[in-house]
Amino acid sequence: MAEPLLELRNLRKAYGALTVTDDVSLSVRPGELHAVIGPNGAGKTTLIHQISGMLSSDSGQILFDGENVTHLSMPQRVRRGLARSFQITSILPGFSALENVALAVQARHGSSFRLFGNAAQERALNEPAMQHLNTVGLGGRASIPAGLLSHGEKRQLELAIALATEPKLLLLDEPLAGTGHDESLRVVETLRRLKGRITIVLIEHDMDAVFSLADRVSVLVYGRVIATDTPENVRMNEDVRTAYLGEEETV
Amino acid sequence: MTELTGTQTAPAPSPGMRIDIIPVILFAAFAAAPLLASASGAEGYVLSLLTRVMIFGLAALSLDLILGYGALVSFGHAAFLGIGAYAVGILASHGVEDALIQIPVALAASALFALVTGAISLRTKGVYFIMITLAFAQMLFFLATSLAPYGGDDGMTLPTRSLVAGAGFLENDYAFYAATLLCLTGGYLLSRAIVTSRFGRVLRGTKENAVRMEAIGFQPFRFQLAAYVISGMMAGLAGCLMANQAEFISPAFMTWQRSGELIFMVVLGGLGSLHGAIIGAAAFLLLEEFLPELLHAGSFFLNDDVRWRLTENWQMVFGPILILIVLFARGGIMGILRRGSHG
């Protein structure tokens, strides 16, 4: 089996007496789409924060691409190819959609200390940015200020921004949150196209989406991973059924 | 399907930059003013007032670069005016009177001060940043008051305006006006280039959403610090000009009130447009200059005693006017101008 691209070893995070993630160990193989599911409050978003570097971990290790990144800052991890999206949309509302993505291209291509030249006119930034917008289906909305896009479009924009950092691994925190039916179909379609090209860790509540996209699924309950397996096996897993799936819906 | 219908190419660069009309008018007015001044009969007064407007315009412009584009509320920007002024004054008192030495020294000193205090201040956010920049400026203020050889509290008169490569033409008010206009234009063009550059885009992005910028791999601190240093150097240059205009330096150049006035000028003119800061400085200084007379003329219907008191205490009117402008003209004077051009 190939070396895992991302490996979490005994990761833990607590706020006072409240343990949010507890001894999480997980390995993500190169190229797979690895979904993390779990009921509300299971610690999924905290886990993404820990992996991305927005939160430091109390203990445990994060290995990415063979390197220990546990103590690196978020920008340092991004430059090593670890990109993320946010559960609550995080974009630059005053910038056009194209500029939002072009800025990520610029981050990737360095030389941001250039004090001269009109950045908005640079083809070297705009063309790759446009490609990423096309990938998520936002090509026609490039010049719209990002703050004026619909909620679903913002979710797609965030995906394009993450892609523009040319990640090896994409951490997606509920990319379907709050999207309408049509919009969510479009995002799922985009993810299906990205699948295989980029390794993806997907946190999502939409079970239809998870089970149709994921190669493997990890189930997080009260901060612990209770199962990691193929979607079929997870669906059959008794622990999972009682701990999670049975509570809300029958899959 | 979405792939096919949604595919677009990057928009082609628009032919020629769109040129904003307001800064063109502004700089044309500054360039034409000396002609009018000589016709007015009070040319010394008009030139000196407008030179002062341009110097403060440069200082406000430098503040707008970090305040309007980086959301960094520096409450100690007058410190750089002081550094520029004292660089000129201290060097002059030791016989180094050439601007070709004074200005590089002033810029280097401003850059160093900005680098050190910025590296510390920028680790804080919000109100803490405001307070720590204020504290650094106050430190410098008290340092200046204790510099007995250079006038201490009272300040110090300069023997002469700076020479340029040994020539003393800045003694001429027209020449000094031209030199100041040159500095302001240079500062404006540089700032304009910076805010549209890659660097400026990172700065603006950080202002909008710092977490997003980190999530695409930027370390905002480095960019904010660089902007702070550039801004400090520009304000330092304004300080050099200020010392030369007054032919005098004093700790009063860097009081916290002065820092507050600079913020006010930027807000009054409209944050984040660069020329707005210059217009704000002009409005502030001209209002300060002419309000007593306007009040005197406008209150003809009152009896002499009340009229005199009103004119004497013109600041009582000045404050509320400024507050009303900020409250009701969102985006400052630039906001009004923009709305005017759309409507």
TrEMBL record, chain A:
Q: Which PROSITE patterns match?
A: ABC_TRANSPORTER_2
Span of domain ABC transporter: 6-247
**PANTHER family xrefs:** ABC TRANSPORTER ATP-BINDING PROTEIN, CONSERVED COMPONENT OF ABC TRANSPORTER FOR NATURAL AMINO ACIDS-RELATED
This chain's protein is named ABC transporter ATP-binding protein
Top-level taxonomic group: Bacteria
Keyword set, alphabetical order: ATP-binding, Nucleotide-binding, Transport
Q: Could you state a single Gene Ontology molecular function term?
A: ATP binding
List the source organism.
Microvirga splendida
Which Gene3D superfamilies does this UniProt record tie to the protein? P-loop containing nucleotide triphosphate hydrolases
The record, for Pfam families, names: ABC_tran, BCA_ABC_TP_C
TrEMBL record, chain B:
* Membrane topology type: Multi-pass membrane protein
Q: Does the keyword Transferase apply?
A: no
InterPro entries tied to this protein: ABC_transp_permease, LivM-like
This chain belongs to which protein, by name?
A: Branched-chain amino acid ABC transporter permease
Residues passing through the membrane, by range: 21-39, 45-67, 74-93, 99-120, 127-148, 174-195, 262-287, 317-337
Intracellular or extracellular location(s): Cell membrane
Database matches in Pfam families: BPD_transp_2 (PF02653)
What's in the keyword line of the UniProt record?
Cell membrane, Membrane, Transmembrane, Transmembrane helix
